[in-house]
Amino acid sequence: MTIKRLMIISMLLAAAIVIGYLESLIPLFIPGVRLGLANVIILIMLYEFKFYEALIVDLLRIFIISLIRGTFLSPIFFMALVGGMLSYLIMLLFTRFKKFSPIGVSVLGSLFHAVGQILVAIVLMSTVKIAYYLPFIALLSVVTGIISGLIAKMYLKRSITKNFIEGNNDFEEENENI
């Protein structure tokens, strides 16, 4: 791994942490529901980076945000971890199929994140009644998944990070001429 690649991955991790933390401060009308904008970074990474680089960023994002918010090893942490990993696996699987756009992959990731959270809540609360909450979260997950997918799609159209890593950017060319 080159230093340039490591720097870009570090910047993406920092962006995911800042976005994830800031969106945790935005109250939505259903408790526990977030916009999921930090997943834009993970989605971009699944398209432009190695799968394990995206996984490392996703895991570090979840752990660091939980440490910042003081929720590490709490039920909220485990819901975020299981939801995040289920979302990651689904998005990884569907980014490999060329028939799905980033919007479709994002919606699926968002839906499975909600499923993961509900599964943890069922285990922690020892009741399946919490599953009645899933349709409401799923509806919001579709909306937030579409928004995140649109943002990722616009970004991927320009392929900024990929061009920078591969050295196809104007900045490098300008500096070489100096």
Explain the overall architecture.
- The chain is mainly alpha-helical.
- It has one domain: Arp2/3 complex 21 kDa subunit ARPC3 (Orthogonal Bundle), CATH 1.10.1760.20.
- Helix content is 76%, strand content 0%.
- It contains 8 helices and no strands.
- Helix 2 runs parallel beside helix 4 (75-95).
- The chain is globular.
- The chain starts with a helix and ends with a helix.
Query: Roughly how much helix do the residues carry, as a percent range?
Result: over 70%
**How do the helices and strands follow one another from N- to C-terminus?**
HHHHHHHH
Count of DSSP strands: 0
Strand percent estimate: under 5%
Average pLDDT level: 87
Distance between the termini: 27 Å
CATH top level class name: Mainly Alpha
Number of domains: 1
Give the radius of gyration. Answer: 17 Å
Helix and strand content put the structural class at mainly alpha
Please outline what is shown here.
By secondary structure, the chain is an all-alpha fold. It has 8 helices and no strands.
Chain-wise SSE layout:
Blueprint lengths: L2 H22 L14 H10 L2 H19 L5 H21 L6 H24 L8 H25 L1 H6 L4 H8 L1
Helix pairs in contact: 1-2, 1-3, 2-3, 2-4, 2-6, 3-4, 4-5, 5-6
